[in-house]
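Quick question: what would this complex look like in 3D?
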Amino acid sequence: MSRMTIRVSRFDPDSGEPARLVPYEVEVHDGARVLHALHAVHEQDPTLAYRYCCGSGQCGSCAVRVNGKPALACMTPVADGDSIEPLDLPVVRDLVVDLVPRIERIAALVPGDSSDLPDRGTVEEMKDLCDCVECGSCISVCPAVAVSDFAGPTAMRQLERLQLDPRDAGDRVVQARDDGLFNCTSCHACYEACPKEIRIMGKAIERLRAEANRRGFTLPRHREVADLVRTTGRSVVRTETPLFERIDPVIEPYGPVRGEVAFFVGCMYSMRLPRTALDAIEVLRRNGIRVVVPMAQVCCGSPLIRTGQLDDLPRLKAVNREAFAPYPIVMTMCAGCGATLKNDYEDLPFRVMDINEVLTEFGIEPPARLPLTVTYHDPCHLLRGQGISEQPRAFIRQVADLVEMPARCCGSGGGVKSGRPEVAAALGELRREAIAATGAEQVISSCPFCEFHIAGHTDLPVRNVTSLLLEAYRKKDEEAASTPAPSPDVRR
Amino acid sequence: MVENGATTSHVLVIGSGGAGVRAAIEAAGHGSVVLLSKTIAGKGGCTPMAEGGYNAVLREDDDFSLHAADTLKGGAFLNDPALVEVLVREAPERVRELVAWGAVFDVAPGGGVAQRPFGGQQRPRTCYAGDRTGHEMMVTLMDRLAATDVEVVHECAAVELLLDGGRCAGAAALDRDGDLRVFLADAVVLATGGGTQIYDISTNSASGTGDGYALGYRAGAELIDMEMVQFHPTGAIHPYDARGRLVTEAVRGEGGRLLNRLGERFMARYDPVRMELSTRDVVARAIATEILEGRGTERGGVWLDVTHLPPGQVEERLPIMLEQFLAFGVDIRNEPMEVAPTAHHIMGGLRINTDCATTVPGLFAAGECSGGVHGANRLGGNALAETQVFGRRAGRSAGLEPERHRQVTPEIDRQLDALRRRFDGYLDGEVPPHQVIKRLKLTMWRGAGIFRDREGLAAALREVEALKNERLRAATRQNLLECCTAENQCLLASLVCRAALLRPECRGAHTRRDPACELPPDRSPYGHTYLSLAREGIEEVRA
């Protein structure tokens, strides 16, 4: 047995008081789960309301937030200091949320002409989507649910499961479209929250969007993007002189060569935000990394995959594969491109690294400190798409004071900014509030879509992590220049 | 419909597991239906947790008589043969119906529903969806339920059946706020599932508190074979709070081996022919014996090993087992599971006929809360089949009952008043229900477990009766239900002990260390034990 203190959210709808975290000291057996600690709390204070049933992760009754993250109480080990809160859904009392209306939006199969078990292949495809225990976790973390009438990730999961099933008579693609299929920002928060680890975005939403595309339901703005990719190889139109027209194909570092990367620039950094890419190249040069830019590269295909327009994809993949084949390390600095190359390309002959990984692996020259307080916005395709979270923070902390804010999608991904601008704007406004709450002077991120979108939803400067580093290097150079005994080589 | 504060319908179904939902779907074809669920409907009961499968005769090389023979032999010939006949004949239709409604069962290499071997059966007869068969069934049933006009009342627990002129006329229930709600109907289906939460080590969900046995008994229904508690051979033993969690029979169906501390495949000593796929009563006793005789693991279990199987087979056929053990740091592809018996299923229950009618007019029962289908020991895979076959029958029978007045009569009013006084007593009580339950569970595990004798059973019964007399305390109205549930559990425990004392033989899951009769099951002079408010005893068959 061990004693521990856990904090449990208490809320009484009749009191008029907001929810508050109350500490309880409990004694639990070794290996106890959160649920067993809650039982111990309930023995002390029988007024605690919480749901549970099967105790083995199969009924989905007991989902709560453990230290902010959704988890099944019956399967999650409890630790001293844990805080237990209800899912981020309307709370009935204490840890009990109003789950039934959410579950009722999950579609039911309508028997059609066929009543036979589908063939093995179809069943195998469906099985991946059948594990859902309807715990509500994915719905509670979904940004699109928070700001729109999106039926939620698991509702989409079920529609794809039904769509695959020859026994179902419903038109699930139309239903998905009407239930907010194009509201999903592809942030993958649902997958991260799912106790059954169902990849709802890739296994349901992208497939439903592809099916919608075949049926002619693709949103006009998404179709325009696909047309643009087909005709120009790029998913955005140039608003500035593109990066490729500003640089040489091989950019040597200052000082000795410590490494080499082939730079997959991506449409946004080449066509819309080339100055940010130039900042990044300066930081790489400063740290001894040769940057090769294969000029034949085209759009990674992410805007097409996320919106279900797959026709042109094989061509893009082939062009990029060939353009980068000679290089052992391909570096991305767009979170979306990086996630796409890593997760949607098969058997690449090279290693794909995000620029934060490259700089971490090679190590960077210490920058100067800037008198700045900043916050960091986690790009979804970096955090959940590539598991990169600590590396950019480590750079930022070397330069400025970092105030954290909750990681949440800004609304720019998944084709939502173009196809559902009102959803993207609503999420952008939520970011504005979160940014303001930090008291920071600047917002740092590491994704062109996030940087571009958030810039429209905050009055603060929004900058790439490498731009911040570059500013800190320049300050370092200025300080060195003004000191009485300057180093003969300020650069390195 | 709500009239004078009471919700009325043609049929009231109590319980939202496989049997209850199936009953509601069927009854919906005959009139208005209310489905009362203690949990969020679809999440409660043991169906969504059921892992292994569903027995049905589907293939040429199998037939009804074989399934019936296996079920009767497995049940030590205590089963009601008419109920067994219904089970085996209708199980295939019901599984085909589930398939037509969209269930995603695993597919056999040649097409059709795949079937695997389960203990005590001469054919691979157990249909499955990986090891989440019950979950898949429940999802399918909830889909089907959504297409009906059934009114689902979530998180509202029946606490007493209401009687009017000797008929069951509805139920009183407590909602989430602890408010009393009244449901009146022309007929009531009890489908509340099992109750092995009266044991310290149990596979059941938290809702397995035996409410149906208690409600039925208090309403005057006769219960049979309540001593027949199945101890599943393989429950998890570690960590402490996960003790009892089901390790599905599918593990052995897929080829899992039982080994003792010495590495011996000990089933060879107990059932050299069927080995690990012997019936559950035999395997549970074998494991318990190994542990009692000092050949168990340090933690008091035995090993269940699938490391000789291809990892892909484990991943595909036993994903839940893999996930659950991984969550506790054990990768079953590389290490054996540590297991011991755990209270799993109550074979006894309300006495029903083939129409699911109980001995109380207007009251029908289906699923685990009814008795007679499984006799003295249930075959793995027969419970899910039972929920569908008898759930449908109960729904139909209830639906066919004539319409009645559905009014709160003075007689019902008196019952409601008595209930309110009971609630007032709880609010005024002294002992928190969790303390009573803790003592009850240990008492039952010690005195009415796998091995039993008169002395131990009598002592357990005395302790249970003492617990029944404790003045339970509800801290708030929302805690009234916990008191009602604790009372139900104490009553169920008492019924199990009393029935166990009535049966002086070893039969199926009921193992007496002091049997007065040692005839083999097929020559036993004893029939069902029976308990009701009116009488208690054991049927004696005179050849």
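Answer marked as accepted. The longest strand of chain A covers residues 2-10.
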